[in-house]
Amino acid sequence: MTNYFQKRINQWSLSVIIILFIINILNIIYNTPMVPDQHWAQKIFYVHVPSAWVGFLSYFIVMISGFMYLTSRDNRWDNIGLAASEIGTFFISLVLITGPIWATPIWGQPWVWEPRLVTTLILFLIYIGYFMIRVYGGYIERMKRNAAALGIVAFINVPIIFLSVQFWSPDIQSHPQVEMTEQPSEILSPFIFSLIVFTMLYTVMIRYRVYVIHLNNGMNEDV
Amino acid sequence: MLSVQNISKAFNRKKILKNISFSQKEGESIVFMGRNGAGKSTLFRIIARLMTYDNGSIIFQGKNLLKVKPIHSSKLFYLGHSPGMYHPFSAIENLNFLLSLRKIYKDQLEILDVLDQFGLMESANEPIGVYSEGMLQRLKIVCAQLMDWDMILIDEPFSNLDKDGLDLVQKQISFWRSQNKTISMILHNKNHAENFCDRILTIESGIIK
Amino acid sequence: MFFVLLKKELFIELRSKELILSMVVFGIAIVLAFSFSSNLSRTVVMDYASGMFWITVLFVSALGVHRSFAYEKEYDAFSMLVTAPIDRGLIFLAKWVSGFIYLTLMEILIIFPFFKFLMIDYPSNILIAISTTLLVNLGIMAVANLVSGIAMRSNLSEILLPILFFPLVSPIIIAATKISTGVMLNESYGVWEIWVLIVGSIIIISGLAGYALFDYLVEE
Asked: Cβ of A179: how many Cβ atoms within 10 Å?
């Protein structure tokens, strides 16, 4: 079996994404304007929002994979779901770390009950449960079904969770991100670029992770 | 009646059943034998749709059980190792509930009569939580006798029974055979097996020998 | 068939009385803990009363749902349900409705101690308070039974159930607290209408998801 990175396309995609990511970081540090009052903390916006986008996209993929696994019982869908849940949780963790860092200069404290952050935190906690199901959900084949069901239930609740938290605390000062999307092109353009780079990074990560999981499952198979 | 084709099942990636295939004609009795952990109970639970399987198909009375609604397996009855009943309920309450699940309506006198045949009349109104293992085993056979089925899967029908209980259950199985019912059983005793079946299938290392 | 299953759920409890008793005692214990631990003035307690009530309900419902599914595991009773020629989604619906009934009964029994121990005034509009509480109970039980179906056959079901349940039920708790506070303060319906809609949405989503997914969850 060929190594994943022996394939030309995978070599190219990894190289391209590394280069693009470096360009993205340099772009964020040197090219993006300084926003008054927020200074360097504002630059986290270019990482925070794309991380959130990728995290939620990943969880959406977990839901789709769960649905496909339950209907087809094809293990490949479970592999995709597992990979997506791991990578999604990684990016969501980034969101929970970068969010308070960014918002501290504006809010004066690392955490307030802002709808987006709270929704992200709740989803993160649900996925802790998801990983516990993966470990303690019984024998592997049953665990996959339970995890698939939970992945579906977790994501379909996201709009409800977000709406309820948003209405819960309308007096909480809105997340700085909301103002940022109304900014001029010298802020929006690098933001869109960062969004695209993060999405490409995610694609590379998930393809590789699915490959590793598939390999792992194949090696563990007792025929 | 039943056609099992290429059924495989793995637990934690270890294949317990490997492409199991067999057919059972109407009125035929088959006994499944094999060592502990061979996969006999697993196979029964898969056929009864209690457990999922990895691949294969199960055709019962012309219908693929995985592709049809559970209503189409109403003529297939499964008796597992455990009682499959609610411990706070009495024998009569459990039987009434299980009968109503299958939309079968029996006269209470008929239920009591069958309970009496199996020596459970005195404790018919006590919660089955106080029953011994032997009494629970008899109750399972009472349940099977009252149900309306064409094929039954019984996991170790003779376990935990005293001599009287053994006689009663053996007579009941013989009666079912005389009624041309299709029976599949899991047994460990070869003498029992030879007396109560048309053929014996042995499961070893996940395949039928 | 749904009524057969519902009748079974209700009669089991009538026979054993384990569920209601444990839920009520646990509920009162939590209320007592709130009374002891909150060294607040009466007016401040009024602000927190809704939250305290729904936290109590949350813990009690987790216990109740776990116990309700425990009946099925003992003596492998669930196998008879699963192998029966019935729509498996009806099992979820029966558990949901019976859980709603038990939760409501439990609340009826602990509501007076709750108000008395915490020295809170009763709401002036009792009818609205009752109807909104019933709606929230439906929502809580829908999520609880769905989660219990997922965690039921796991190795650590007692621990997994609350871990999965509490985050998923958070929108309902937010909504319930807002509704109860609105009712207690005699606010007009328009103020807390959105929360009723949110609870209604959760009931529909969780109910449909539970009904559809239960077929996949009950098999071993």
From this structure: 13
Domains in chain B (CATH in brackets) are 2-208 (3.40.50.300)
Question: B13 vs A220: CB contact, 8 Å cut-off?
Answer: yes
Contacts of B64 (CB under 8 A, 6+ apart): B57, B58
- The residues, ordered by sequence, that sit 6+ positions from C162 with a Cβ below 8 Å of its Cβ are C62
Tens of pLDDT, residues C108-157: 999 988 888 888 888 888 899 999 999 999 999 999 999 999 988 888 88
Chain A neighbours (≥3 Cβ pairs under 8 A) are B, C
Neighbours of B26 (CB within 10 A): 12
CB B55 within 8 A of CB B22: no
Residue ranges in chain A modelled with pLDDT below 50: 222-223
Whole-number pLDDT of residue A223? 38
Residue identified by tokens 């209408």 is: C193
Contact B85 C88 (CB under 8 A): no
Contact between chains at C167 and A125 (C-beta distance less than 8 A): yes
Question: Is any Cβ of chain B less than 8 angstroms from the Cβ of A7?
Answer: no
Which strand (E) or helix (H) includes residue A194? Answer: helix A185-220
Sheet holding B63-64, edge to edge: B14-24, B2-11, B55-60, B63-64
Question: If you search the block for the tokens 């009773």, which residue do you land on?
Answer: C77
- Spatial neighbors of C59 by CB under 8 A, at least 6 apart, are C26, C30
Average pLDDT for residues C46-52, to the nearest whole number?
Answer: 83
pTM: 0.89
